[in-house]
Amino acid sequence: MARPVTAPAGLERRVTSAIRWSAVNSLVQRLSQVGVGILLARLIAPEQFGVFAVALVVLNIVMSVSEMGVSVALVRTEKPVSELAPTVTTLSIASGCVLAALCILGAPWFASAMDTPQATGVIQLMSLSLVIAGASAVPGALLQREFRQDHKFVADTSAFVVGTAIVVVLALMGFGAWSLAWSRIATNLVAAVVMFAYTPKRYRPGFDVVQARGLLSFGLPLAGSSLLVFGVMNVDYIIVGSVLGTVPLGFYLLAFNLANWPVGAFSQPVRSVSLAAFSQVRDDPELFARTFARALRLLALVTVPACVLLAALADPLVRTVYGERWAPAAQALALLVLLGALRVALELGYDYLASAGRSGAILVIHLVWLGVLVPLLAVGAHFGGIQGVAAAQSVVVLLVVVPAYLVTFRPYGLRARVLGAAVARPVLGGVVMVAVALGVQWVIQDALWRLLVGGALASLAYAAVVFPLRHEVLGLLRRQSAKPINQTEGSA
Questions:
Q1: What is the pLDDT of residue 375?
Q2: Is the pLDDT of residue 2 over 50?
Q3: DSSP-based three-state secondary structure for 476
Q4: What number of other Cβ atoms are within 10 A of residue 173's Cβ?
Q5: Whole-prediction pTM
Q6: Which residues are CB-neighbours of 114 under 8 A, at least 6 positions away?
Q7: Which of 24, 87, 420, 475 is the most buried (most CB within 10 A)?
Q8: CB contact at 8 A, 162 and 184
């Protein structure tokens, strides 16, 4: 029998406002980054992008455990923030400083192992980001907990403006990879300063043994999972750099960044609120499951067309926008887009399981993911170059990781049939888009016209397929928190 489920007072209004601000933030950031990326691709050689990619591997992997997962506990806790924040502050700062020291000391070894000794100084410089991340972990978590994405927008925009000014000036002066490294430091520092300015209460470092034990028991498996996530997302850089060299690594980095554009543009706004939102409805199993299915459908509606356009129009896109010298990146881009599309769904699933307290299950999934991925990446690099590496990434996610998440979802009533129904029409629209885009590629030869005509016709075809979902989407976006959420047992 149907029963009404009322959302917590004010929750839906706050979530809706946060998603809107986060969507604006993500759109502005991504469009700006695309423009800056095009400019830098013409100012900086592929080899220098490869040097930066080596340093980025180190930073991303270590950054994933820089605060040992304890800030996530602060986002989802039902305890008073003041009880946990001092201990979280201490753990975050201490771990950031220790990891930064280890990176500085280990940079020469890692750069040599990657056959890119010129990356040593860049790695050491970028390690300072770990200290900044540790110091700003609590303000960032509090903004996320309170759904203050408007404040996050100001922080990210300010950081982007400063970072862009620095990277463009230094690139014009011929600093190559160093310009990207200094820009990253400036971006992180400015964002941290603004987040501190918006945090109404300061929490000095403190330490409570009982609280620390509870934080670490939850956070360490999640940090281990985050380490594995970044390992999964960066081990391909290591293999490409060590097996194929710095120049192919530069091509691969460009392709990977383009393929991840939908992840940042569409997944990031939802993820900015999903952990906190899921945590506040997890005590109602029915609403908990439906919230995930709704979020997945909305993400699929916007992610599928973006990914299809990137994949089907990869070659004319790269040649037209970035120039002929970057054309080899298109070979990997078409395959990496599938990985990007699946990551949007998997990251939402990650937050769902984290909000349910299943950090151990997340750890196991990503451990299996990494274990299966590494040998296949090596095989792909040897036999197919960067295209083989991209294919290995997508195959492992589709055949191993997605089924693992589906198994873990079962106790919460999230079956493959329910989730498949949620994304069925967007996927069908994507298939139609592929057919239209490939047809245009076959008829038109000029790269620019293939890009413009193919993109326009494929987008129109997708809109025609998903048009019946318009009322549902508009209803979800307009619903106000004052109204009860009346759901029936069969709704998605």
A1: 92
A2: no
A3: helix
A4: 10
A5: 0.60
A6: 54, 57, 238, 241, 242
A7: 87
A8: no
